[in-house]
Amino acid sequence: MQLRVLLSVLLMGVFLVILAPRTIQAVPLGQDGTCATEYIVQPGDHLGAIAQKYLEDRQAYPAIVVATQRQHARDTSFAQIDDPGQLAAGWKLCIPPLADVPQLMAAAAPAAGIEVVDALGRIVRFAELPQRVVLAGRALHLIANTLYLFPEARERVVALQASFPEMVEFLSLVNPNLAQVQFLERNAGPEQIVASRPDVVVLKSYLADKLGAPLIAIGIPVVYVDLETPEQFFDDLVTLGQLFGNPQRAAAVNTFFRERIATVTQAVQDLAEEQKPSVLILQYSVQGEQIAFSVPPVTWIQTTMAELAGGRPVWREAAQGGGWNIVNLEQIASWDPDVICVVSYFSDPEAAVETLRADERWQALQAVRSDRLFAFPTDFLIYSWDQPDPRWILGLMWLAKTLHPDRFSALDIRAETYVFFEQLYGLDRATVEEKIIPIVRGVAR
Amino acid sequence: MDAIIALEDVHFAYRGASQHVFDDLDLSIPDGAFAVILGPNGTGKTTLLHLILGYRRPQHGKVYIAGTLQERYTRREMSRLAGLVPQDEAVAFDFSVLDYTLLGRAPYIGPLDMPTENDVQIAIKALETVGVAHLGMRPLASLSGGERQLVIIARALAQQPRILLLDEPTAHLDLSNRNRVLHVLRTLNQHGTTVVMTTHDPVAAAAVANFVVLMRDGKVIEAGQPEEVFTAERLSATYGVPVRVLRLEEQILAFNPLR
Amino acid sequence: MSATYPDYNHRTARQLRYLAVGLLGLLLLSVLWGRYSGASLLSPAELWHDPLAQRLVMTLRLPRVLMACLLGMGLAASGSTLQMIFRNPLVEPGFLGVSQGAAFGAACAIMVFGTVPFAVQGLALFFAGLGVVLSYLLARHIRFGGWVLRLVLSGIAISALFASGVGVLKYVADPLTQLPEIVFWMLGGLYAITWSKLLSILPLAVPSLAVIFFMRWRLNLLSMGEQTAFSLGAAPTRERAIALAAAVGATAAVVSVSGVVGWVGLIVPHMARRIAGSDAQKSLPVALLMGGIFALVCDNVARTLLAGEIPLGTLTSLFGAGLFILLMTTANPWLRSAA
Lengths: 445, 259, 339
Hints:
The complex is a heterotrimer of chains A (445), B (259) and C (339).
Chain A: H1 2-26, E1 37-40, H2 47-55, H3 61-74, E2 92-95, H4 101-107, E3 114-117, E4 123-126, E5 133-135, H5 141-147, H6 153-156, E6 157-161, H7 165-174, E7 182-184, H8 190-195, E8 200-204, H9 208-218, E9 222-225, H10 230-244, H11 247-268, E10 278-287, E11 290-295, H12 301-308, E12 312-313, E13 325-327, H13 329-335, E14 339-343, H14 349-358, H15 360-363, H16 366-369, E15 373-375, E16 378-379, E17 383-384, H17 392-403, H18 413-425, H19 429-436
Parallel strand pairs in A: 5-6, 5-8, 6-7, 8-9, 10-12, 10-14, 14-15
Antiparallel strand pairs in A: 1-2, 3-4, 10-11, 11-13, 16-17
Helix pairs in contact in A: 3-4, 10-11, 11-17, 17-18
Chain B: E1 3-12, E2 22-30, E3 34-38, H1 45-53, E4 60-65, E5 68-69, H2 75-81, E6 82-85, H3 97-102, H4 117-130, H5 145-158, E7 163-167, H6 175-190, E8 194-199, H7 202-208, E9 211-216, E10 219-224, H8 226-229, H9 232-239, E11 244-248, E12 251-255
Parallel strand pairs in B: 3-8, 3-9, 6-7, 7-8
Antiparallel strand pairs in B: 1-2, 1-4, 4-5, 9-10, 11-12
Helix pairs in contact in B: 4-5, 5-6
Chain C: H1 10-32, E1 33-34, E2 40-41, H2 44-49, H3 51-85, H4 98-112, H5 119-141, H6 147-172, H7 178-187, H8 195-214, H9 216-222, H10 226-231, H11 236-258, H12 264-276, H13 280-304, H14 312-329, H15 333-338
Antiparallel strand pairs in C: 1-2
Helix pairs in contact in C: 1-3, 1-13, 3-8, 3-11, 3-12, 3-13, 4-5, 4-6, 4-7, 4-11, 5-6, 5-11, 8-11, 9-13, 12-13, 12-14, 13-14
């Protein structure tokens, strides 16, 4: 009996001694890390995009660089990455496990010069902070506002395309030196952009082939942004923070937005589906004599806003063209939503709402009868608060309060408007009072 | 004389057609002959020329050209041997007479080559032979019917063929042009080219031929010297209507009396 | 050379000389002309001293200007060839499903592979070829008409199918980002030409053009009826197929990078035939040079007249239609001098 116990103990001891080193080895140590995946670089890959895909954050690319360097030291089939902006096809990269990322980031060597990771995952290096920034492309009025969230933009943005006079009006409030900014002509090509001697050109990513490639061929650095959805907004803020050399500002804006989003989502998180009011965001546009109503596609920011605000967007089932889809009154009647918000670009949404209220066909809708037909707020007319512009946070708060007045009784949209323009655009209270508040439509006085 | 063209036991029908054009056709044309194939419309005269050229293949039987089976010749060789003169052809583009005639040199020019100086000279020579050299730079479309026919002949001549096949060359020509064409053909024949001409006009045939083939419904009724073949019975059998034959000033005339 | 025909080759040689000099001069001018700051001509001194201007010229203007030239030559050669082998002066290089197929491929690439390099070009090329193959296969199943009619009909049908496909894609496209790109591509433009794009199409474009160039006399023969071509020793079907493949190859190669540019392939062969005669041996080289000049002029206007790009196809249609009207209403100079 005792012999058996002794033998089992001995056996267990031997077992442990043999197995122990192996189990210890299998635990990721962070010094001698293991790879969650090994990735072979394809032509056209960018390190930021790889980091986005596997580590869910394009800014985490240094973790991949460090992990791969460490693997390279032991096994030269892994790549030697000298410049994260230059990847060659066929290189083997080590993608570390998510848990290791913080330590690897801390261990990463600091970048020589400025490194900017853009929306396409490209890592663009600058020896010094770019002083001449040009914003190019079409319909820039929304993106420009995101750039001007950074005070550095006032000096450094030297050229952009002015799409609308209202855009110039607003930007001249933000940047008193706007007269020195060169306004590019519509559809300016690479030659004209180059003539303004940029250090960097900021473009939306869909223009990569058309404008980006020729500019890069001439040797002008290009940084791409997306700025369509809230997630892209936050990621691109970090990119812009790197570009302007002001990551603290990017973080501050980030916090500003997240706090407000949290306020909204926490207040509605316990709502069951049936308790959420059905909401319709409708664009009202007049072409000559014709009035057209259209709904946004599911992928756009309006849908996200409606859901975050605790509503049920009825247009989810509408036919999905790539842009605004025209709907007729029959369809609206068949949805018969609880709340209707009317968006109008280029004309006054409050006037549109009055017109609809007076229309007897519309009076049959329950939203009109229960007085839940609203104009979606806008200032400067083109800056309706439902677009991928920083104002979307105001739109979100307004929508939440409109859908659930009881839960957001403490939320004062007017006050938030002041805070928004003061903190994000550095406007003083008097300017906001005189120039902006008077032209805001859709928010109770 | 050896037969330069010989058809033995030839059957031919167009794909999808129920009726045969030729059944058991036997025909032999001597070398150097001026052969005229005579018969009413629709007897298959054009088809016969196509068979000789190799453009159509018989379902059964053999075609011999210059003693060798038709199939043995490559298209190139065949085109140096025999030239086809259609009645007319639609030319989609505005070629000049010389451009058009130069096409006849194609059998001697590779697919990726250009015509040489020599080719141009031969084409000009061909135009001179038929007597239209002065029209060389004119657009083909501006020529009269007779001149046009002569140009087509010139094109075939540029091929420097041993055999000239003509499909109803005088059918739509007036008297003077008809004579012009026949005169040219006779001269060519005298210089050694075998001429095979189809026509439905017995008078033209009689004037130039030294070998006549009478055809009806795809069958050869008679083939031989004109003196033997041009009889009233034979011609009537060919055309299916009464034909009378007259000799006038050494010319044979055949006509179908109108009531 | 016979005394009766002193002019036979001389006149064409003279025309070709003038055109070649004109083209070279225009190329040089085009490289210096642009919108570097407003529409202007860069002086050689400026170019010498400004490194940015030098990079601009070498990496943007030079490939673009050469590409415009190649585009014009390719379409003119292709148009000439197709008009001859189809015996129809109204035939246009893209009609066998090439243009619409390429448009469909490009639209797919813009929608699905937005930022992948060479995606648009690759898919455009693929579907252009597919369009021809489908037209050809469909033609074999048509039960009536000569081969010309069959091919033309199936070309129309396949083009219509692809065009409707593009229509669907345009409806589903994002109107801010994708739709304008698709529309712009379909209207044709050389705004995105780089050296790599230009070099990538050369392996297809150059052999195709070479084949057409060397076959140019033979095209005369192929424009005759079956019977005549046969009697002159040609293998009409096979040779036409080779010419067709070369024409389609040249067209697909240039269309895949330039988008759908119309009228060049239709109008330039006509003009060339009018001044040099219908003989393809002479009119094809003239067409090549004239095509290069025409496309180059249109592209220069496209990129310099306004700040933004004017679609190239719009300009070639405008100028092409204008020239066409002019051509149709004046007497034929070639005929006149020959008479």
